[in-house]
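Please review this one:
***
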Amino acid sequence: MMMNGLRLTATGSSIAAKSLHGNVVVVASRQVRSNAAVLERCTEIRNRNPRNLELMTIARKPKGYHLDKKGHEFWNKLFVRVSARHFEAEIVHYKHGPTITVSTRDWALKKQLYKTNDISAYSNVGRMLAQKCLEAGITSVYCDIDENSSQKFAAFIDEMKKGGIALEEPPQYTHAYPWDAKRMVKPWTLEN
């Protein structure tokens, strides 16, 4: 490829430029490195993921007051909207709002479906939502949908489970008092 009087050639992991006078100049070089050497010498690893405490079940769940309506104690919750023509499912974080949304209104999904409100549409939305959840690092969500209410919801929930999403969140870790008979296993301990 010619560019400004230079001939660019790519070899392996570097790009070289050769001028018309025959001089070779290395423009860019990249190497693929592994983190194994860095991790061997590392004494401390700091995870800067803001949702790491939720993954370790240490973060607080919004419990509210004892007179409040139940169903608000979650980190991520599965919400479903059904209209006459479309079906939409989304994962909502208690603090940051909707994080993942999949709908039969999405052009790419709509073009693959025969109808946007039949059982196959529900199962495909469940499959796509499970895949997007895993890509975003969400492995468990709070779900209060009754799968026995219809075959469509049963297909949707079944695809979510097949996709690897747990439909109930693990309990929040609470620090044990010295007088407690049963103590929870600490989430940061490794078990064999």
Remarks:
- Residues 6 and 19 are 5 Å apart (CA to CA).
- The mean pLDDT is 81.
- The first strand starts at residue 2 and ends at 3.
- Helices lie at 36-41, 52-55, 107-110, 119-136, 151-162.
